[in-house]
Amino acid sequence: MIYFDSDYMAGAHPEVLQRLVDTNLEHTVGYGCDHYTENATRLIREACGAPHAQVFLLVGGTQTNATIIDGLLARHEGVLAPESAHINVHEAGAIEATGHKVLTLPQHQGKVWAEEVEHYINEFYRDETFLHMVAPGMLYISFPTEYGTIYTLNELEALSQVCHDAQIPLYIDGARLGYGLAADECDVTLKDIARLADVFYIGGTKMGAMMGEAVVVTNPTLLKNMTPLMKQHGALLAKGRLLGLQFEALFTDDLYMRIGRYAVDLAMELKEEFTTRGYETVVDSPTNQQFFRLPNDLIDRLRQHASFELWGPQGETHSIVRFVTSWTTTYNDINHLLDLI
Amino acid sequence: MIYFDSDYMAGAHPEVLQRLVDTNLEHTVGYGCDHYTENATRLIREACGAPHAQVFLLVGGTQTNATIIDGLLARHEGVLAPESAHINVHEAGAIEATGHKVLTLPQHQGKVWAEEVEHYINEFYRDETFLHMVAPGMLYISFPTEYGTIYTLNELEALSQVCHDAQIPLYIDGARLGYGLAADECDVTLKDIARLADVFYIGGTKMGAMMGEAVVVTNPTLLKNMTPLMKQHGALLAKGRLLGLQFEALFTDDLYMRIGRYAVDLAMELKEEFTTRGYETVVDSPTNQQFFRLPNDLIDRLRQHASFELWGPQGETHSIVRFVTSWTTTYNDINHLLDLI
Amino acid sequence: MIYFDSDYMAGAHPEVLQRLVDTNLEHTVGYGCDHYTENATRLIREACGAPHAQVFLLVGGTQTNATIIDGLLARHEGVLAPESAHINVHEAGAIEATGHKVLTLPQHQGKVWAEEVEHYINEFYRDETFLHMVAPGMLYISFPTEYGTIYTLNELEALSQVCHDAQIPLYIDGARLGYGLAADECDVTLKDIARLADVFYIGGTKMGAMMGEAVVVTNPTLLKNMTPLMKQHGALLAKGRLLGLQFEALFTDDLYMRIGRYAVDLAMELKEEFTTRGYETVVDSPTNQQFFRLPNDLIDRLRQHASFELWGPQGETHSIVRFVTSWTTTYNDINHLLDLI
Amino acid sequence: MIYFDSDYMAGAHPEVLQRLVDTNLEHTVGYGCDHYTENATRLIREACGAPHAQVFLLVGGTQTNATIIDGLLARHEGVLAPESAHINVHEAGAIEATGHKVLTLPQHQGKVWAEEVEHYINEFYRDETFLHMVAPGMLYISFPTEYGTIYTLNELEALSQVCHDAQIPLYIDGARLGYGLAADECDVTLKDIARLADVFYIGGTKMGAMMGEAVVVTNPTLLKNMTPLMKQHGALLAKGRLLGLQFEALFTDDLYMRIGRYAVDLAMELKEEFTTRGYETVVDSPTNQQFFRLPNDLIDRLRQHASFELWGPQGETHSIVRFVTSWTTTYNDINHLLDLI
């Protein structure tokens, strides 16, 4: 069986695992106060070109989103997000469980447009009625989006400007950040992300770590009490050094971006071959998630040898499927899959 | 340096780590639907003598307490707990953050007494005023307690009976469960715990796992929607099999109890030698945490070679310290420490 | 100045006020345990044909919605509601503040369609993904809707059936219930509402009371702990008898429906005259709220003599306005307004 | 029957009621934007000597406490309060329902001591452990306390100083404020309260209003978004002018303090006569609540003619009872009661 279900199906990238094995018997203090976490922080700051940024290591994506959004918003505020946002659809109401509404914007292949954000905010404050409504207190986007698409630098700068003008923070969910930055067409760098977002996270779970997400806070006036906030949200790992070690490995010898580029290269190969053979992509994704519209009988045949996600029927004869590559995918896997179509 | 700070200072027990390494490159489905988690569930049920119990694997202790307590309580209810309870003191308000009050009972070396629980409940419903107060909706205890003490079987049965009579669930926080069950004086078995508690958790983080706590639900009418509840609480690990694998290892060849017994043996050695030499224990703990009242100059001398927690001054010349043993502690460490006193 | 802004601009209907004045110096116990509240409960049960229903008197609409929805939902559930629902738009996030998501359905002149509710629920449980999403735990509708429209008996029965089949409660927000029941085209009675909804509320604030909303719970298995729940939500009025007295007055000599019919009659007069003179209604509302599309210069002229709400521009030359009638509106007011157009 | 149960058993003081009757048919805008509320705000500011204070009118005490405390605290903070505080005991967990812990301090006849508050805060920040605990984010006290006692000016100044030094706001629950200010031994004025508290509320419900509590915010950096916060908490009354009118009446011709002084005079009469006849007070309360230790047979006899609260048994033969006076109590009531003892 070959696996294209997701990028969190295996354990840790060998270089990450080795780091955990090598240090296993050492004693360090808990809760992220250890020197590995300190070192990971240093490496992430350097990679981000943000020497004064705060870095916090949490365990998982939903947990990170809930903790950060809860920390950024005032009680009466909600979070603006595209309708397709992970926080709006697939986090079991974790944001609302902290007391905050997700305020939805139209999504365009998973992205929001700066002018629509601006329009929303302007309309909101148009008259006194707003006092009875949920104030937009921050903007959430993801890079790449749920559909694997990425923002251009221009688009990100416009969103950042709109947020800045409205005095609300811009938060970027980077669960698959490396796959976005590694895309051929990507004109955004990690330093741009750090410059334009007030807070963002560098996803580890889907990029070669066992688990772990690195939150980077570049706006120093926000999130002043992260340790108790993380504890309260069940996001403060006792053996915090396990997260430190993994991010240390990911940010050593460019491993994070190597993983990103490798998976994206395979995904592009897949995309080209599928489209060459006449199968349509549903979204033009430049990253490690590829969405195709395939005939149901082909899908049935593929499923005997390959495992991947079915996103639902399209008409009577076709369905949408998702193929995801990662550091575990091999060229053999790709060739094997292509042989089947 | 020798380490007695806590039982979560190193990585994973070698047998646990090996299991993670051996399976690292396999692909499994996420979120705990994999066969390793299924197998861990089977092993835990067997060890508990509870073939129909539900088992859920979460990441950390505070997260587990918040998720379970939030799931068990109705909106207007609170959780009864000893004043010294971890949920009352050291979880940064995680329980209150889910909307529930911690209702405190007097603690006796970390334990609550059945008659005091019963009295609280009876007094509460004495007159109509209770409608303006927070109803006791469950009882939280820990085994062992914050001070390393353990309940006798009689005490546990009495607490279970009181809860049963009041129709509220009994929940046991077993962050260090194995150290309690391994105590010489312990007349409680894991099967007793499973029989007497409605819900409890078997701590992994402090018992040889990298991370992970196994929640066991023996009362089938409670907690019917754990998956979305865990997701909402940021407690559903993407690579859930990592938890499954670790508990599989811990419940293979009796590893969990081997770790418990080993650490307790060392702790008893420590206790005996300290008391023999005239140093008082503060609490008579039969488990892996030992609390001594030591002269400050001795403490200063010890700290040059050993690392341990200072719990605060007692008078002008003495302080209370805590020594914790674990699977990483060696007899050499113990002897080294004893040589210093 | 003549007033058409809303139905909560004056004090209490004279018959309601008189009841408060007459009883002002009496002493009664607090928190709704008095005999006036008991009597109001009896009268409401009779009017609803629901002798075993529970009745609870709360102070305001948003408070009532938040209390009831919080009480009905399990932690992982959300509330289905039309996109235009008051709870979704104009309650400042009160529902989310209790930890629950508002799951929106398309609105058709403020109403939801039974087949769309059914479709949503079926799609939701289509595959295992639902465990990562917010489960629809109840349906919220309002009668009349935000746009003054009302459900037919057939529509309500279909919605009730869908909820029953899905085993989720149907909750009806009746902030303006009397204006809906009094509509000429209404084929629904208060007894139908009580038969088809699991929980609903009879609005007082907008129907002649100073304040107060009467929640009726006809499904006895729901909302078993309303007193502490109300207290927790700040919804338990100390001088609870003030609410009891007002609902006693409203349900004596058919006052509630008299107020409804009177206001609706005036609204119909208004509607007919406006449409006769060529002004379009935006929604065909049979109740006390009327929405017209008027030329901006007419609006400017009217505003010199009348006060009403502007709902926003429609094109360059027109805007939408709302006129609301109530027990305080007189035929003189209507004639005066009509003279101006 | 003569009534000493509480100060919220009757309707409104005649001068308050008259104001509501006189204005009943007027039309005003809703939600507290009317000119009566504006006028009440002006009168309250004057009485407080705080021309720039913000004033907000809410409906009830528990609601007010939950709204204010939720607005003042950051997510990871809790509220310091005496163990006997209303928010800790008799608000059904309304504070915890907003996500915040009540951090209890020892109570001394209902009061907290400045040095104990200071000690708590100092101990809290003693070492790094505090990051795992709930930070004290504000201090809640009541004036008078649950036991009718009052703080001296010195005590209040010390508490205010401690809060100021710790940079946390001081919030005073003034549900019965007027009865405290009217006490013979009281050396605190309303202006002192306004000067020393960051936020406090002037209770209306128990001081002659039908309902209503006036929140005064003297620290302009706090509570910047009260309208949506109140709405979210179900505390924004639609017919807000009803609260404005009542506070306008209470702050006209010194009515608020007249009510306070009248009730306190009667309470002092009661106290003197009871103590003269050898019955002990349990607390030396200078305000409108009096607590006596009475023989059970006397209590039984009194209950045939008078209604009052039983606070629980004291030994086998005695019990504690509470007598409360208000604007509805008459000298005849007092004499009648005294005739019975």
Defining traits:
homotetramer; alpha/beta; Aspartate Aminotransferase, domain 2; seven-stranded mixed beta sheet; globular
Walk me through this protein's architecture.
The structure is a homotetramer of 341-residue chains. Chain A has 341 residues and is of the alpha/beta class. Chain A has two domains: 2-7 and 255-340, Aspartate Aminotransferase, domain 1 (Alpha-Beta Complex); 14-250, Type I PLP-dependent aspartate aminotransferase-like (Major domain) (Aspartate Aminotransferase, domain 2, 3-Layer(aba) Sandwich). Chain A has 14 helices and 13 strands. Chain A has helices at residues 14-22, 35-48, 61-72, 86-89, 94-97, 114-124, 153-166, 177-181, 190-196, 226-232, 241-250, 255-276, 296-303, 331-340, and strands at residues 2-3, 54-58, 77-82, 102-105, 135-142, 170-174, 199-203, 213-217, 280-281, 289-295, 306-307, 309-314, 318-324. The first copy, chain A, has a seven-stranded mixed sheet, sandwiched between helices. A four-stranded antiparallel sheet of chain A has the order 9-10-13-12. In chain A, α1 crosses α11 (241-250), α2 packs parallel to α11 and α6 (114-124) packs parallel to α7 (153-166). Chain A is globular. The relative contact order of chain A is 0.18. The model of chain A has no long low-confidence stretch (mean pLDDT 97). Chains A and B meet through α1, α3 and α10 of A and α1, α3 and α10 of B.
